[in-house]
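Weekly sync notes, structure subgroup
Attendees: PM, AL, DS (notes)

Item 1: joint prediction request from the bench team. They want all four components modeled as one assembly rather than separately. Inputs as received:
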Amino acid sequence: MDNITIFDVAKKAGVSKSTVSRVINNKKNVNEKTRQKILQVIDELDFQPSNSARSLVTKKTRNIGLILPDLGDCFFAKFTKGAEEICRSNNYNLLMISSYWDVKAEQDRIDILHNNRMDGLLLVSGSSISRSYINQLENKNLPIVVIDRLLPNTKIPTVNPDNFHGAYTGLKHLIKLGHEKISCVQGPGDLYSVQERIRGYRTAVTEKNPHFNPQKYIFQGQFDRESGYKAARKIIKTRPRSTAVFFTNDRMAVGGMEAFKEANIKIPEDISILGCDDLDYVSLLSPPLTTLEQPREKMGQKGISILMDIIENSRENKKQKKEKDWSFKFEMKLKIRGSTGPVPSR
Amino acid sequence: MDNITIFDVAKKAGVSKSTVSRVINNKKNVNEKTRQKILQVIDELDFQPSNSARSLVTKKTRNIGLILPDLGDCFFAKFTKGAEEICRSNNYNLLMISSYWDVKAEQDRIDILHNNRMDGLLLVSGSSISRSYINQLENKNLPIVVIDRLLPNTKIPTVNPDNFHGAYTGLKHLIKLGHEKISCVQGPGDLYSVQERIRGYRTAVTEKNPHFNPQKYIFQGQFDRESGYKAARKIIKTRPRSTAVFFTNDRMAVGGMEAFKEANIKIPEDISILGCDDLDYVSLLSPPLTTLEQPREKMGQKGISILMDIIENSRENKKQKKEKDWSFKFEMKLKIRGSTGPVPSR
DNA sequence: AATTATCGTGGGAGCGCTCCCACAACTCCT
DNA sequence: AGGAGTTGTGGGAGCGCTCCCACGATAATT
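Output from the run, pasted for the record:
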C-alpha cells in the first residue's frame, strides 16, 4: 500500500534517490527538466515522504505541542483555534493536551511532549509559574512560548492581554457613568492577570478620588461562577452598597448577576456590572454583559508565530542565537452592553 | 543533549542493544536481573526511545488525528476533551485540525493526516457525507471512526446520539404539559441528526393526534442563531400561533428566544421553548433553556476507544480481521428548565 | 591553453530503532 | 546418554530518508 519510497520514485524517474531528495526539499542544483520529471513521477506514484525517516535524520518533527488547562473549556478553545490556524499554514501539526489546572500534571505533559520530540511548545498555564519551574523550562532546550502569564527575568517569550490598561479602560467607563463606589471581585491572587487587572482598578478609582479606599471594596473570588455569586452576596450586605462591580472575569460576573437578580437588585438600574474576557455567550445574557474582550484567538496565533520564528531561526543560524526579548501585549477592547448604565440617582 | 540512544544504555549496562530493546518493549525472555539493571541505567541516563526511529520500523506512530469543523466552537470542544482523555491514558497523541465546515477542506485534512502517518482518524464531520466520500474513506486503509453522522452500508464505525428518541422524549414532555400546536425549527436537512430529530418530532406530535399536520408547523433553519431568530419571527406571524417550539439545536433556540422576547411574548407563559444540545451556557439564559443533552464528551471518548480497539486488533491478528459492526448510540437526556411550562389557558 | 569555479548528479554512511536468526547454556524427557 | 525443548543473549539487516563527498561536464577566469 504505502510502500512507495524515495527509491521507487528515483527508479521510475531514472535518477538517484539523492536527486529526488533534492527535489522534495526544494534544494538547488537540480536541472529544471529533471525536477519536472521527478515532480511528475511523484504525482503519478502519489509519493509522500515518510515523516519518521525524515525526523530520524533531521531531528525535526514538525509537531508543536499545545498544553492548556482544559480542552473542553470555551475560554481556551479560542487559543486552540488560533494556534491551529498558524500551524496549519506553516505545515506544522498541532498536538494538544490538557493539564487540568494542575501544576504537576502540567509538568508531566511538558515532559511527555518533550519526549515525543516536539519542535516547540505553547503553554497556556493554569496557574502561576514558580521560579524553579521557569528554570526547568529554560533548561529543556526546547522552544517554549507561554500565554497569559508573566515570566520575570527570563528569555521565554510570553503573550498576554494588556490587563492593566484593559481594566483601567473599563473602570473609566464606569466612572464616566457617574459611579464612585465601585467594588471589585478579584480572582486567584497569584495570577499575573489578576494582579494587573486589580492594579488597573485601583489606579482608575483612586485617580480623581484620592479619598477612596479600594481595599474596602475588593472581594475575593476564585474565577468560577459560584465564587462570583458569593462575592455578590457579600456586596449586597455591605453598606453603603456599591453602585457598580468589576468582576475580574466573566464567569464570576455571571454568578454575580444571578445573585443580584435573586435579591431583586436591577441591572443596570440599581447596579452596573463589568466583566472581563468576553466569553462567547455573555452577550446573550439578560442584560448582555459589558465586558473586556481578550483577543484569545489572536493570542494563540501570535504564540505559534513566535514559536515558528524561534524554530526556523535556530535552524538557520545556530551560532548567533539572537535571543530577542519576545513579549507581546494585546489590547483588551471594552464591549459596552446592557449591564452597565448611569449611576442611580439615589 | 538528547543523544542518548539505546546503544548508550546497552554499553553502560554491559549488554547488547537487542536486550535493551526487549526491555523497553516489555518482551519476555529477559533475565530478571538484567532487566532490573537495564531499567536502572535507563533511569540514570534518562533515556527516551526515539519515536521516529521506532515508527520507521514499526509503521506505527501512536498518533491519532481528530478532524472537526471548528476547534474554537464550544460545541466541539467537548468532543475534543473526551477524545484527548482516552488518547492520553493509552499513550497516544492527539492531533487536531479544523475543517471549517467545508467538505473539500475536510478531505484535504484527511489526506494531510493520512500522509502524516496517523494510526487512526476521528472525524466529526461538518456536513453530510456522500457515498463516494465513504468509499474513499474505506479505501484509505486507515482506521476511521465518524461521529455524529450515519454512514449507511459501510463498515466505518459511527458514534451518534440517539436523536430520534431524544427528540421524541422532549416532545412528549411538551405534550404532557398540554401543548398541541407545537412548531419545529429544523436545521440543514441533509444532516442525519436533523432528520432523526424531525422524525422524533413527527412521531410524538401525531401519535395521539392524527389530525395534526406537522408539515405546516415545520420551519426551516440553518443551525445558527440568526436563522433561529428568523424562524421565530415567522412563527409569531403565523395564526393560530403555536404554544411551543422545538428548535433542533440550542443556537437556533437562543435566536428564537430573542425574537419572542422582542415581540413581548413571554417564555414560558405564552410560549414554551425546547432546544437541543445543551450547550454550556443555555442554563444561564433567562429563562434557562429546557433542552436535550448530547453527551459529547462521552462520545469523543467512545470514538477513540473504538479506534484503539481497531488499531490494536489489526496489530495483533491481521489474518482474521473481524470487522465487527461498530455503531454506537448515546441517550440524550432531557434537561427540564425554565423555558418550558404548561400550555397557556388561552 | 591552462586553471579554477560552478552545476548536476550519484554513492555511501548513518540516523536509532525493531526484528529475525544464530547460538550457547540449561532443563527435561524417554 | 542423547535428542528435543526452553531461556537468555548478541549480531546483522533494514526501515526511508538526509547529507556529505566525489566526480564528470561545463562555464568562467587568468
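Discussion: Chain A has a mean pLDDT of 91.
Action: AL to compare against the crosslinking data before next sync.
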